[in-house]
Protein: Phage-related baseplate assembly protein
Organism: Pseudoalteromonas denitrificans DSM 6059
Amino acid sequence: MSAYSLLDLSQVPVPDIIETLDFEVIFKDLKQQLININAQHAQVLNLESEPLTQVLHTFAYRELLLRAQLNDVTRANMLASATGYDLDAIGARYNIKRLEKSTNVLSEGRENEQNTENSQLLIQESDTNFRRRIQMAFNGLNTAGSEGSYIFHGLSSDPQVLDIDVTSPAPCEIVMTILSSQIPSGIPSDALLVKVRHYFGLKPDGSSGFKNYQLNDSEQLQNIRPLGDKLTIQKVDVVEYQVEAVLGLLPGVGQDEILLEAKKSLSTYSDKRHKLGKKISVSGLYSSLHLDGVDTVRLISPVSDIQVAKNQVAYCTNQLISTEVIYD
């Protein structure tokens, strides 16, 4: 993980304006309001078959829907919970647009034809990455220089940039490590490195001071790198590992179902930790595998925490998960 940390939006308390919805509570309140107006309605409202009771049920349900809509509107205006176009609207407040990139792909099923048609595949920045850049908006108000601004501008260079680490081993020397979403391991392609270098005003080979080079005619040179900074942009160093474990199940527990859920849970943990500098802990692996129905977990590999440097990423290459039945 980068040394530059942001507020964890998932830990921000839910605003008081978002209420817990309960149909019975709403119906009870409406019923009591009507009784307060005319106490003679009390006996009638105790009967579910009465038309007046059914009318109150209708009103209560419509109020429930209205309150739910207000909750949704509130969430759509919060950075922590907005998605899609709602998140785009929040980004517009900070003059930040979701990144998009078009790439040519072969038409499906026509790879072997001589006159193959190309189609455009639009790669859009994910909500998670876009939300992170919005959160860092104030770091983009000036040129790169601080750690946060370098990270912000690096993430803004291409939607396939997943994570960035920035260090300064010596005065005026900056080393930027790129993790991409192009392939599962996270290693960026040479073309992506060229794109990021171009964004910071560097030549394709990483040297500085180009005047005539452009990635394509539609892009303009980004004047965001301080003149005194010597910037090196490099690929992430991947630390590969595999997980081997035996799950102990009690008799009667469905082995196939447990095995499938365990692999999904392990993949979720591995994907969550697939960021720069995030170590793989033995305790985290145990937690991801110890699901309901699993009595014991015997972790064979890894035997200890996998430590990862700031310019490295941990990548799970294989899952060797098996089950055994435990008889008391």
In short: The chain has three domains: 1-81, 122-235, 239-325. The first helix runs from residue 23 to 37. The radius of gyration is 28 Å.
